[in-house]
C-alpha cells in the first residue's frame, strides 16, 4: 500500500518559478505528486491519506547546508566547547577545560574547540604556559575557532615530538619564542600534520555511529535536510566515518542526506578512487567529491591576502600550496571527473583557485562542472565574473558579516575591504549561483541567522556592513535550497517544492519573505521533513 500525505493550512513557498506559492502539497511514497490550490489537490486525497496541518506555518523546500564538517562536529560532542563567547579572558578556557576533564572518561588527552582569541581583551592567543595550568600530566589540545590554528601544552609538545629543532612543514608555522622554543601555538599545516594527524582516531564504530546520530539530530533542529560534509578522511577518520554513515543509512537511521567530500591533503590512507556518481536521488549518502584547501582564516591572520592585514601591516598571509601545486591538483581531479571544493578565504587564495579552474578547463573542458570555492569571503568583482564564466559556484561564509564584521573592520581588514566581505550582491547581480554556509563546528548550523544576515548585512553591533551587498530574502533562501541543490547535482530531486521531487521540507514559524528583515534571524524551525517523514518537530 502506498503512503500518502497532504500538507495544507499554511503558506507554501515552493521556490519554483512556475508556481511560487501554493495552498497544498500532495505526497505519495515520499515523492511530490501535486502542488497547487487545495481544491485542485483534494481530488487525490482518499481515506488513507494523512492530513498534515501546517498550523499557519511557512513551508519551504528542505534546507541544504552546502559546506560544513558534520563528522568533526560529531567527534567534538565529546570535547569541551570554548566558543560562543564562553571565553572572555585567558583564565576561562583553563577553568572550562579543567571542569570538562573532571567529568570526562579517563584519557591521555584533554581537548577543547572553538577558542576565539578576539573575544579576549588583549586579543591574545593561548600558549603552552596557559594550558599547562590545565594539566602537566595529560596532553591538552585546543582548536581555534577558525579550525586553522591550534594550541597545545608542554606535555603535548613532548608527546608529538615538537621541539626547538622541529622544522616548519610546508604551508605551516610553529610559533616560537625569542629563544626559538615552541610557544604551543601552531598554524595551518603545522597544526594539521604535527598535531591533528597524530591524534588517535576513534576506533569504536558503535560510538561513532551514536555521535553521528546526535550530530544529525542537531542539524535537523535547524531545518537542515542535506549537507556537504567536507574534509572527510582527515586525521585518519575516513574509513570509520564513511562506515558510520553507511551503517546508519542501512539501518534507516540517517536522517539527513550527506554529500561527502574527501580531504586529499590528509595523511589518511582512505582514498576512494571511484566516485559514486552524480546526483543523490533517494540515497542518503554519496561519496561525491574532493576537498582541497589553499589558505587559512582571516581572523587567524592565515588567509592569503593580496594586501596586508590591518593589524599586521607587513604581513599578507601565505598560500599553503604553491600555485603550481594548486593547478596540478585541480587538473588531476578535474580530469578524473570529480567535483572539487577548494577552501579559499583571502583574495590571493581566491585568485589562485579561480586561475587553476580556468586553466583546467582550457586543458580539459568539462560541461557543467559546478566546482566550488569555499568561503570565498574577499572575492573581487572580477573573481565573480570569472567564476560565472568558468561555471564555478562560490559558497559564502555569510555569518562572518554578523559574527566577525565589526572585528574585520577594526582589526583585520579595515572598512573598505570588510564592506565587501562575502559579496552576495555582486554574485546576485552577475547571475551567478551561490550558496551560504556556517562551516559547523566553526559556528553552529545557524540557518535562519545566516539567511537574515545575508538580507540585512548587519554586524553584531547593528552596523550595516556593505549595504550594496544585501540580497532579498528569496535569494538568500535560494542559497539554501535551489542553488544549494545544484552543488550535489541534485536539482532534479531537491531544492524546490515541485512535482516529481522528493518531499524534503522545512516548516518555519513565519513568512521570511514578508516579515521585518531584522526578525528573520528569530524565525523558529517548527518541523524538518525528509521524504514525508518528520525527523524533527519543535
What attributes does this structure have?
538 residues; 8-stranded parallel sheet; Diaminopimelate Epimerase, Chain A, domain 1; 8-stranded mixed sheet; alpha/beta
Would you mind describing this structure in some detail?
The two termini are about 30 Å apart. About 30% of the residues lie in helices and about 25% in strands. The protein has a domain at about 70-200: Diaminopimelate Epimerase, Chain A, domain 1 (Roll). The strands form 3 sheets. Strands 1, 2, 3, 4, 5, 20, 21 and 22 form an 8-stranded mixed sheet that branches. The longest helix is centred in the middle third of the chain and has 17 residues, at about 345-365. By secondary structure, it is an alpha/beta fold.
**Unreliable runs:** none
Rough outline = globular
Q: Any idea of the CATH topology of the domain at 71-198?
A: Diaminopimelate Epimerase, Chain A, domain 1
- The percent range for strand residues is 15-25%
Instruction: Give the total of beta strands.
Output: 22
Pairing-aware structural class of the strands and helices?
Answer: alpha/beta
Write the layout of secondary structure elements.
Layout: E1 4-13, E2 21-28, E3 31-36, H1 38-41, E4 50-53, E5 58-61, E6 63-68, H2 70-76, E7 80-81, H3 91-103, E8 109-115, H4 128-132, E9 139-144, E10 149-152, H5 154-159, E11 172-176, E12 182-188, H6 189-194, H7 205-220, E13 224-232, H8 238-250, E14 257-263, E15 285-293, H9 323-336, E16 339-344, H10 347-363, E17 372-375, H11 381-390, E18 393-396, H12 399-403, H13 405-412, H14 415-419, H15 424-429, E19 435-436, H16 447-456, H17 473-478, H18 482-486, E20 505-508, E21 525-530, E22 533-537
Parallel strand pairs: 1-4, 1-5, 6-13, 7-8, 8-9, 13-14, 14-15, 15-16, 16-17, 17-18, 18-19
Antiparallel strand pairs: 1-2, 2-3, 5-20, 9-10, 10-12, 11-12, 20-21, 21-22
Amino acid at each position: 500500500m502506498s503512503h500518502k500525505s497532504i500538507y495544507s493550512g499554511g503558506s507554501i513557498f515552493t521556490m519554483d518559478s512556475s508556481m511560487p506559492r501554493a495552498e497544498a502539497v500532495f505526497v505519495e511514497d515520499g515523492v511530490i505528486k501535486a502542488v497547487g490550490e487545495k481544491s485542485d489537490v483534494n481530488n487525490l486525497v482518499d481515506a488513507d491519506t494523512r492530513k498534515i496541518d501546517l498550523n499557519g506555518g511557512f513551508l519551504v523546500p528542505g534546507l541544504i547546508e552546502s559546506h560544513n564538517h558534520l563528522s568533526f562536529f560529531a567527534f567534538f560532542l565529546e570535547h569541551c566547547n570554548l566558543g560562543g563567547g564562553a571565553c572572555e579572558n585567558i583564565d576561562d578556557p583553563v577553568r572550562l577545560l579543567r571542569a570538562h576533564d573532571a567529568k570526562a572518561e579517563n584519557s591521555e588527552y584533554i581537548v577543547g574547540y572553538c577558542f576565539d582569541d578576539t573575544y579576549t581583551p588583549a586579543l591574545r592567543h593561548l600558549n603552552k604556559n596557559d594550558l599547562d595550568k590545565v594539566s602537566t600530566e595529560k596532553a591538552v589540545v585546543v582548536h581555534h575557532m577558525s579550525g586553522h590554528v591550534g594550541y597545545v601544552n608542554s606535555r603535548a609538545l613532548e608527546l608529538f615530538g615538537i621541539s626547538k629543532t622541529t622544522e616548519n612543514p610546508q604551508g605551516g608555522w610553529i610559533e616560537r619564542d625569542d629563544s626559538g622554543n615552541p610557544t604551543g601555538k601552531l598554524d595551518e599545516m603545522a597544526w594539521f600534520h604535527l598535531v591533528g594527524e597524530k591524534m588517535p582516531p576513534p576506533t569504536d564504530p558503535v560510538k561513532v555511529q551514536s555521535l553521528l546520530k546526535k550530530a544529525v539530530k542537531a542539524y535537523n533542529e535547524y531545518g537542515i535536510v542535506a549537507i556537504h560534509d567536507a574534509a572527510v578522511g582527515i586525521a585518519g577518520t575516513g574509513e570509520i566515518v564513511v562506515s558510520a554513515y553507511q551503517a546508519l543509512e542501512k539501518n534507516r537511521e540517517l536522517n539527513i542526506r550527506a554529500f561527502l567530500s574527501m580531504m586529499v591533503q590528509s595523511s589518511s590512507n582512505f582514498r576512494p578512487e571511484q566516485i559514486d556518481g552524480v546526483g543523490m536521488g533517494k540515497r542518503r549518502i554519496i561519496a561525491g567529491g574532493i576537498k582541497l584547501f589553499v589558505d587559512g582564516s582571516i581572523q587567524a591572520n592565515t588567509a592569503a591576502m593580496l594586501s596586508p592585514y590591518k593589524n599586521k601591516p607587513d604581513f599578507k598571509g601565505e598560500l599553503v600550496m604553491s600555485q603550481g601545486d594548486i593547478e596540478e591538483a585541480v587538473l588531476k581531479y578535474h580530469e578524473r571527473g570529480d567535483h572539487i571544493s577548494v577552501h579559499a578565504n583571502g583574495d590571493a587564495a581566491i585568485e589562485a583557485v579561480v586561475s587553476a579552474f580556468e586553466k583546467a578547463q582550457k586543458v580539459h573542458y568539462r560541461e557543467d562542472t559546478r566546482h566550488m570555492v569555499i568561503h570565498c569571503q574577499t572575492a573581487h568583482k572580477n573573481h565573480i565574473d570569472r567564476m560565472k564564466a568558468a561555471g564555478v559556484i562560490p559558497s559564502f561564509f555569510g555569518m562572518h558579516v554578523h559574527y566577525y564584521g565589526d572585528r574585520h573592520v577594526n582589526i583585520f581588514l579595515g572598512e573598505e575591504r570588510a564592506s565587501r566581505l562575502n559579496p552576495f550582491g555582486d554574485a546576485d547581480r552577475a547571475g551567478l549561483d551561490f550558496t551560504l554556509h556556517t562551516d559547523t563546528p566553526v559556528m553552529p548550523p545557524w540557518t535562519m541567522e545566516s539567511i537574515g544576515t545575508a538580507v540585512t548585512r548587519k554586524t553584531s553591533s547593528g552596523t550595516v556592513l556593505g549595504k550594496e551587498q544585501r540580497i532579498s530574502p528569496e535569494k538568500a533562501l535560494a542559497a539554501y535550497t535551489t542553488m544549494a541543490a545544484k552543488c550535489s547535482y541534485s536539482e532534479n530531486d531537491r531544492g524546490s517544492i515541485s512535482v516529481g521531487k522528493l518531499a524534503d521540507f522545512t516548516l518555519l514559524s513565519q513568512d521570511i519573505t514578508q516579515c521585518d528583515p531584522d526578525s528573520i534571524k528569530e524565525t523558529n524551525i517548527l518541523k524538518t521533513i525528509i521524504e514525508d517523514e518528520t525527523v524533527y518537530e519543535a
